[in-house]
Amino acid sequence: MSTHKRHLTRRRVLGASAIGVAATGAAVAGGTGLLATASAAGFGYRDDGRNYVVDTGASLVFKVSKTNGDLTSLVYKGKEYEGYGGKHSHVESGLGASTVTVRHSGSVILIKVVHGPITQWYAARSGQNNVYLWTNKADASFTATRYIVRIRPGMFPNTGSDAWDSTRDKIIEAGDVWKSPDGTTHSKHYSGKRTIDYDHIGFTTGSAGLWLVRSNHEKASGGPFYRSLLRHSNEGGAGLYEILHYNEAQTEPERFGLQGPYIIAFTDGAAPPSSLSQEDLDSSWADGLGITGWVGRAGRGKVAGVGLKGMDAKYPYTVGFANKDAQYWAKAAAGTGAFSCKGMLPGTYTLTVFKNELAVHTESVKVTAGATTSLHTLALTGDPSAAATVWRLGDWDGTPGGFKNAKLMTYAHPSDGRAARWTGNVTIGSGGEAASFPAYIWKDVNNGVLVYFRLTRAQAAAAHTLRVGVTDAFAGGRPRVTVNDWVSGVPTAPAQPTTRSLTTGSYRGNNHTFTFSVPSSAWRTDPSQYNVLKIETVSGSGGSAFLSAGTSFDCLDLLT
User: Fold this and answer.
1) Which of 128, 145, 177, 184 is within CB 3.0–4.6 Å of 173 for a Cys-Cys bond?
2) DSSP H helices in 274-362
3) Alpha helices, DSSP H only, in 317-463?
4) pLDDT tens track for 149-188
């Protein structure tokens, strides 16, 4: 492939040929002569006393510390890319003292790092400019939220919503959100992407690219629409992240077991080839390596569905699968809704069909190793958009999309200079109502947004149900409504993430619909008069301004 310079001649490692030979830090120290010669000749590894040095036989040489398992060097075409601020690349902030071993088996060099409940693996394949990584988490006794690839300063352009300059920009929130003099905001949280939206992240100069190809995230949490930090860049260096279990805006408990491979890939500037994406990646070469927790293709199954009935053509549909041990998803075909999800661990899963990000169907499905579970057409009966309404503000799709500032909030802070004013009221029937309604309402910022609407005499003579759909809330925020002189009670707060979310690029929490039964006595009986709906976020918790209690909205409607 043009994006990868490959050396197709694979030279035999000298001495004991290193095939099937394992070495520990203690065993190889001081005995590096033969292996050093082998590395100089092509694909192989050597021990420099502190690190195992792996030559991929292409244009990449990397080092792994024999003491703590850090990835301490990434030299591509003679240039060092790894490390900043005296730190290297590793799980979390580093494992600490670990047992590190290396094994050369045919065209693969495998390094194993063991630290209590965490086992980290690095692999090189002959002739490839890639490092393959796996992380095995046995339990929660060691916090493992991420693997971070640290990149030296000045290697790539420092641009984007997840890039900042701390010599110029000012911190405005929690030490990790910055505002530039031009009013734009920047943070490592502002990737603007959901997990389902990307196969890889990285940096490029046009002539050299450093990428992280994500794993299938089967042992991560949060599902296909989870939003998290993916990369960052500033004058002091840059970072790429593989998320293992990140707690910010998280809706699911941690899963344990082996996650990977995820891949550090160097190219001549272009994006990594599709053959490295999880959809196309053939990992059968790893079957015999003895990686703890590895399950090859033969031990996995597949679910295939004929289609979905009752789709809304305006939206994409995704079919998700989750249990306590694993998560997967597949995109449904437009028009038919046909879907196929392969490479699944055996077990019983909750299948959820999402209209955009809103769950509209669930059922149970069993996956068997080496087999395909075939499903007939699934009828979607849980779409709230099917209900007849007097009026509707927005649409039911599980996101605040279409509301004011919604798109910007996935890669910017609410105080960003590009944001429209968060205040402003809405009149039903005026045109463009959704675009005028704020995606978020905070107790301390824009509370008490008003919605004006008229009713016919017949409509005003009856009680109606008001539905308010939310996608997330901060600090226990939930809506209380007032209709003219009628005031609702304060509803119970549903379970939502306990961390920041609305200010860190995520509206994704637990979708919830609040229903309010509004009596006929609440309405204005004169059809020429406007009824006034006031929406407030209420909570006894939260801070001030954009860290006060807040709510993210999906849709509001008044049922007939």
Assistant:
1) 177
2) none
3) 433-436, 457-460
4) 999 999 999 999 999 999 999 999 999 999 999 999 999 9
Q: Report the candidate in 548, 468, 465 with the shortest Cα–Cα distance to residue 511.
A: 468
- The candidate with the shortest Cα–Cα distance to 255, out of 217, 216, 213, 300, is 217
For residue 401, pLDDT over 90 is answered with yes
| In the predicted structure, residue 412 carries a pLDDT above the cut 60 | yes
Closest CA to 492 of 503, 509, 477, 482: 477
Whether residue 135 contacts residue 258, with contact meaning beta carbons closer than 8 Å, is answered with yes
Question: Residues with Cβ < 8 Å from 156, sequence gap 6 or more?
Answer: 203, 204, 205, 210, 233, 238
What pLDDT, in 10s, does the model give residues 469-528?
999 999 999 999 999 999 999 999 999 999 999 999 999 999 999 999 999 999 999 999
Among residues of the chain, what percentage have pLDDT more than 90?
92
Judged by phi (left if over 0) then psi (alpha if -120 to 50, else beta), residue 213 lies in: beta
Burial of 421 (0-12, 13-18, 19+ CB in 10 A): exposed
513 alpha-carbon distance from chain centroid:
24
For residue 556, give the nearest of 523, 513, 494 by alpha carbon: 513
541-555 per-position pLDDT tens digit: 999 999 999 999 999
User: Over 50: is that where the pLDDT of 20 sits?
Assistant: no
Distance from C-alpha of 315 to C-alpha of 282, rounded to nearest angstrom: 31
Q: Which long-range contacts (CB under 8 A, 24 or more apart) does 105-112 make?
A: 105/19, 105/20, 105/288, 105/289, 106/19, 107/10, 107/43, 107/285, 108/285, 108/286, 108/289, 109/43, 109/44, 109/45, 109/54, 110/289, 110/291, 111/52, 111/54, 111/64, 111/69
pLDDT score for 9: 31
Q: What is the DSSP letter of 509?
A: S
The position carrying tokens 């310079």 is: 5
Which candidate, 140, 158, 157, 149, places its Cα nearest to that of 230?
149
Cα 424–Cα 427–Cα 433 angle in degrees, nearest 5: 75
What number of other Cβ atoms are within 10 A of residue 149's Cβ?
27
**pLDDT of 32 strictly over 60:** no
Determine the 3-state secondary structure of 336 from DSSP: coil
**Percent of the residues in the chain that have a pLDDT greater than 70, as a whole number:** 93
Q: Are 200 and 214 in contact (CB under 8 A)?
A: yes
CA dist 540 and 271 (Å) reads 48
For the chain, the straight-line distance linking the first and the last C-alpha, in angstroms and rounded, comes to 60
pLDDT bracket for residue 96 (50, 70, 90): very high
**pLDDT range class, residue 23, cuts 50, 70, 90:** low
Cβ-contact 557, 391 below 8 angstroms: yes
Say if residues 191 and 205 touch (Cβ distance below 8 Å): no
d(CA 348, CA 541): 39
